[in-house]
Amino acid sequence: QVNLAESGGGSVQRGGSLRLSCDASALTDRRYYLGWFRQDPGKSREGVAVFATDGTAQYATAVKGRFTISKDNAKNMIYLQMDSLKPGDTAKYYCAADRSLWIGLPEWAVRFWGRGTQVTVST
Tens digit of pLDDT for each residue in 52-97? Predict the structure, then answer.
């Protein structure tokens, strides 16, 4: 098991911003791609923003224009800048790593997961 460590979650009002970080420095195999997924209780885990295997940054339709994924290759970290947050963005956000990552990859297929960080957006 590889440790992916998320941080930066919290509570914010509608319209606010948060920045999530994922420390993947323990993942020394650089053939893995990194991204962000989220999950509401009772729902399946869904892709939010990923650096996909095809070299693109992919975003879920619901977050396009509001969220930005970025990375620091030297530190093997990724970030998720979340702006204009909405109550519908409330979820636990997970860092994911897989050698065949894309925005629609199902939860069961992802090789490594972090433990998640909670994001709560109030009205």
Answer: 999 899 999 999 999 999 999 999 999 999 999 999 999 999 999 9
Residue 63 sits at φ, ψ, to 5 deg, of -115, -5
Sign of CA dihedral 101, 85, 122, 120: positive
CB 26 within 8 A of CB 34: no
Cα separation of 104 and 47, whole Å?
Answer: 6
Question: Three-class SS of residue 35?
Answer: strand
Decide: residue 34, CB within 10 A, 0-12 exposed, 13-18 middle, 19+ buried: buried
